[in-house]
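User: I'm putting together a teaching handout on how multi-component assemblies are represented. Below are the sequence lines for each component of a complex, exactly as they appear in our records. Could you produce the 3D structure of the whole assembly as structure tokens, so the students can see both representations side by side? Please keep the chain order the same as the input.
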Amino acid sequence: MRTAARGALWLLFGAFFLFPLYAMADFSTRNLIKGGRTGAAWANLFADDALYQAIVTSLLLAVLTVVAMLVVLVPTMIWVRLRTPWAKGVVEFMCLLPLTIPALVIVVGLKNVYLWVTYLLGESALTLTFVYVVVVLPFAYRALDAALSAIDLKTLAEAARSLGAGWPTTMLRVVVPNIWSGVLSAAFISVAVVLGEYTIASLSGFQTLQVQIVAIGKSDGPTSVAASLAVLLFGFVLLLGLSLLTRRRRSS
Amino acid sequence: MGEGGRLILLGRIRGRAIAALPLLPFFAVVAIFLIVPTITVIVSAVFDEGRFSLARLQALFSETALSALGKSVLLSGSTALLGAILGALLAWLVVSRPAESLVRRTVLSLCSVLAQFGGVALAFAFLATIGLNGVLTLWVQEHLGWNLAGSGWLYGLPGLILVYTYFQIPLMVIVFLPALEGLREQWREAAVSLGASTWQYWREVAVPLLTPAFLGSALLLFANAFAAYATAAALVSQGSPIVPLLIRSALTSEVVLGQAGFAYALALEMIVVVAVVMVAYNLLVRRTARWLR
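Assistant: Of course. Below is the structure of the complete assembly, with chains in the same order as your input.
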């Protein structure tokens, strides 16, 4: 009786969550004119120039955001633990703040800041990197914090320093290899966030992948659905891979 | 304080300042791209051309703004409730699987994707399912003769409730799972050995322990739905039934005088609602943290 109820619940939840995903696959491969199947919508991911450009832009943004996030956050978090523990609370608060301040609010207040950014760096979608670093902070902070808490940072750093390593060497060649799993998950999650971000990009008028998906959706539904499904699957593979990777690490 | 004392104090402050120098890039990025925009919103909502004015806030009490706020609260409240109940149920199913099992990892990864990174994609998922030419719409029409997509309900509040529930349930699973995992097997054993039935254990032990976490999670879901923008923006291209979409129209139609000020006021309203909800959330989480771990 109880297993039957459980089974029924699994089935219901499974249907509710998986059917729309199946429908996306079906919808994006349907030939609306002749009937039957076609891969045209999926081919558009590369054939449609605007869409392809947007995909490239978003991937570049993802890479830049990950690099910038790591460069800013990793040294800061290590430094806070080793040299300025009194600042730990502030840093944590700042990192988790974007959870409380919606992206929509940031973009409304961003205009003046962006006047300066475009003045200094030119009008490129890649300038979104700065805002995205802030948006991914909570996710990245949690991943890195968990990894840093799991090692004896102080002893490691003292050992490295007493053997004559400078701070850059200590961080890059001693600490970072020990928090590799945290760095990896921070990076993966940030990639997923950036590829899925729509609010800030669209209201700032930049053509990223998600903005293009919406724009194309008005005339070519199947292509938008194909691109949406591709992003969801990519994010799923990324996170599942991460989950399996950390398991192997823990068991070994 | 003597001269020497002051010097020591000054020296200590200088030492701290120098030690804090490497934190500068981090604080600069956060200040410029998070704090400044937020303060800009707050200040601009009450200052018009350098002068303090409540005119912009007054616009929040116009009929358009109030109706959007009401619908936003309805949307966030109903999907937070639905998401919390169904999500807790799903979390309970998930927690009964071993932590290292592939099923659990797959479900959690999928939940994480749908809850946090879905956005626009979820709108298209439902357009492909029950939109005008959706897979389910066509199937039902062919076999049962009903028109599921009739009257375009998917593009209004009912549609938003459905699609939001689709990302609220997974979010509930993610935030509520730690609390369920914190329920120790020994507590159940203790209750059973004292003669409690399964029903009594749930009613007298598990549910009271889980209630703060459950309410806290529901609040988080409310804030999440209230601030969500991407899904609604992709789904609803005409009209602005909810606050985030009203902000969009205020931002994109700045040609109309005073609309930019309206966007600031609405954004401030959003900050206030989300902040109040998150403070309540933190209070409840602190209560849970007492027995968790």
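A couple of points students might notice: Chain B touches chain A through 75 residues (CB under 8 Å). The two ends of chain B are 46 Å apart (CA to CA).
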